[in-house]
Amino acid sequence: MTETSIGTSFGPLLRQCRQAAGLSLRQLAARVGYDHSYLSQVERGQRPGSADLARLCDRELGTDGRLAATFERRPARAGQLRPEADPLETAWRGLVATLDAGGPVPDDYRSVPPACLLPELVRQLHGADGVEAAELSMLIAETLARLGERSTARRWWWAARAAADSVGEGPLPALVRAKEAITGLAERRPLAELLELADESVALDLQAPGAAGCVPRTARALVLAELGHTQDAHRALQELIGIGDELLRTTPQAQPYQLHWAEGRVCTLLGYGVPGCVLLERARELCPESWIGERAQLDLCLAECLVVAGEVAAGLATALRVLVELPDEWHDSLVYDAADRVLRVVQAEPGAAELRQLLARSAYRSGRSVGGGSSWR
Question: What is the CATH number of domain 3-72?
Answer without folding.
Answer: 1.10.260.40
